[in-house]
Amino acid sequence: MGGENKAKGDVHHLDHFVIAVMEPERAEKFYTEVLGARTLKTQNAPNMTRIFMKLGENHVGLFSQGKNQLPKRDSANSYPRHAFEVPAGEYDSMVARIRTAGVFNREINKESALGCCWNDGLVFQDSEGNFFEITKASGIAKTRLHHLHFDATDLKASAAFYQKFLNCAVAEPKSGTVALTLPSGQCVILNQVNQLSEVTTATWRGRHFALKVTDDNFHAIVEKLHAAGIEERDDHGEREGRRDDQVGTYFREPSGFRLQITNEDSATFAAHAND
């Protein structure tokens, strides 16, 4: 590509993420019965179980962690948080199932001071201790990923990273947060903290957050990473078994969150899950 169409390294949308789970069967049951997800495939390795689930328009990976345990957290203002929009006709029943499950939950409102993108919704933990947000949305047919909350000790430096390497639009900081917007309208919200949370700094097998890119933009981003001396890493063998037309790589942003850029979206992943 050349001229005015030259790739600049834009990312298109937040596509999926992998999170730590302590008991895979318990987690799969929660995501199926409470959140309405469906299992795409399960991979059993000697020391690790990986379960991939379709949750609305996106997919989520549930990776077991052996003896590692998520620390107990009883504050809704915990990071990272994964935020989904839920179709208006399904929202109330999902909230009821979450509350019936007996997990930590708290309503979002104008006074909640959680730095959320919306004024009404619910913050909750899954069965394993991971934090989520949901809100009611009109005009959508399926539940979909809307934004991610990350903690950061230096908002300016973290925002500059997303702007430089992923071409995210950066909003002015507001009340200790800054929103980084993607062309899809989704965003990453950075939250100012004095110290990164234990969940953020710990090493969790396979945990990452994936952004969809075109092939040309993939290579443009990789060039920028290499020029800045930022290392690409495949820590857990995720590249094994990729199709010939699939590209992807992993790197870390300033707070240590492991990001993936890939040309494969959740719909394609689901279509090839059992290849």
Polypeptide structure, described:
- With 275 residues, this protein is of the alpha+beta class.
- The chain has one domain: 2,3-Dihydroxybiphenyl 1,2-Dioxygenase, domain 1.
- The strands form 2 sheets. An 8-stranded mixed β-sheet has the order 6-7-8-5-9-12-11-10. A 7-stranded mixed β-sheet has the order 2-3-4-1-13-15-14.
- A hairpin with a 5-residue loop joins strand 14 and strand 15.
- The chain starts with 12 loop residues before the first strand and ends with a helix.
- The N terminus is likely disordered.
Side-by-side strand order of the widest sheet: 6-7-8-5-9-12-11-10
| Topology order in helix (H) and strand (E) letters | EHEEEEHEEEEHEEEHEHEEH
Low-confidence stretches: 1-5
- The count of DSSP E runs of length 2 or more, i.e. the number of strands, is 15
> For this structure, what is the CATH class?
Alpha Beta
Helix content: 10-25%
Into which percentage range does the β-strand content fall?
Answer: 25-35%
Q: Radius of gyration in whole Å, from Cα?
A: 18 Å
Q: Tell me the CATH topology.
A: 2,3-Dihydroxybiphenyl 1,2-Dioxygenase, domain 1
Q: What is the first-to-last residue Cα distance?
A: 32 Å
* Molecular shape: globular
Do you know the CATH architecture? Roll
Characterize the largest beta sheet: strand count, sense, and whether it forms a barrel.
8 strands, mixed
Number of helices: 6
